[in-house]
Amino acid sequence: MGEANTQNNNEKSSKSSLNLIPVFIMGKRYEVPETLTIMKAMEYAGYKYIRGCGCRGGICGACATVYRKPDDYHIRIGLACQTVVEPNMYLTQIPFFPANRASFDLKEIGKDPEEVFKRYPELFRCVACNACTKVCPMDIPVMDYISAIKQGDFEKATELSFDCIQCGLCAARCMAEMPQYHIAQMVRRITGSKIKPKAAHLHNMVDKIKEGKYDTLIKELKTMDLDKLRKLYQEREIEPAEAPEDWEPQSKEYL
Ligand code: SF4
Ligand code: SF4
Ligand code: FES
Known about the structure:
By secondary structure, the chain is an alpha+beta fold. The chain folds into 3 domains: 17-93, Ubiquitin-like (UB roll) (Roll), CATH 3.10.20.30; 114-195, Orthogonal Bundle (Fumarate Reductase Iron-sulfur Protein, Chain B, domain 2), CATH 1.10.1060; 200-226, no CATH class. It contains 11 helices and 5 strands. The protein has a 5-stranded mixed beta sheet, with helices on one face. The longest helix has 16 residues, at 180-195. The chain is flat. It starts with a helix and ends in a 21-residue tail after the last helix. The protein binds iron/sulfur cluster (2 copies) and FE2/S2 (inorganic) cluster. Residues 126-132, 142-143, 146, 173-176, 178, 180 line the site of one iron/sulfur cluster.
C-alpha cells in the first residue's frame, strides 16, 4: 500500500512537472503534455487504440486525423502518430474512411486503361478542385495522378502515387466521391505486372530458392544458438543506401 502510494506520488509529481496544454478530443477537453504526438496525447488522455493505430511511424496510414485551431477556418490534417499537439486544437481521428474497392484478378486482366475505367467510372467525375492534393499528408499530387490515370498514362500515375500510405483522406474530401488511393493501387499493380520490364534477377533468385539452394542454410539458421544468430545478424554486410545498380556483397556464397 505504502509502495503504491509512493509510486502514485512520484507519478503525480512527474506529471505536474510536465508543461500541459489543453486539447479537445472529440469535443472533450483534456490537459496533455505539449511535446506529445496526437496519438500519445490521446493515450495520455485515457483512450485505448484498438483500431486507428498500426506502425506508429508514419507508414501504415491508419491514423488520419483532422483538426482545427481557434479562430482559424482551415481544416488541418495530419497523421496522429506524427503530428505534435498544439494548444486548443480540436481534433478527431478518422481511422477508416468508407471507399469502394473494385474486385479483380490481376491474372485475368490486361493493361488496357479500360480495365480501370470500367471498374472506377467515377474517375471521370473529377472536377479538378485539387482538394485531394491539398489534404494529402504525404504531399502526393493526387489530382495529377488521377489526371494521368484518365489519360491512360499508368507509368506516370505509378510514379506520382508511389508514396501513398492509403490513409483515405483524399477520398474524404473528394466531391467526385472517388477512392483515389484504391484506383492508384490498381494502376500500380497493372504497371508492375504488365507494363514494366520483368526483374530477371528476381526470377532467378526465386528459381534458386525453389530448387533448394538455400534449404541447408535456412535449416542451420533456424536451429542456431540465439546469441550466435544475433551476432551474425549484427555483423552482416548491408547494402549502402546510395549503392549503385550493380552493387554486390563481398561474399557471393549465397548469391
Ligand atoms: S493519396 Fe490519399 S490515401 Fe494516399 S496518402 Fe495521400 S491522402 Fe492518403
Ligand atoms: S478531390 Fe476529387 S474531384 Fe477534386 S481534384 Fe481530387 S479527385 Fe478530382
Ligand atoms: S500509426 Fe501508422 S501512420 Fe500513424
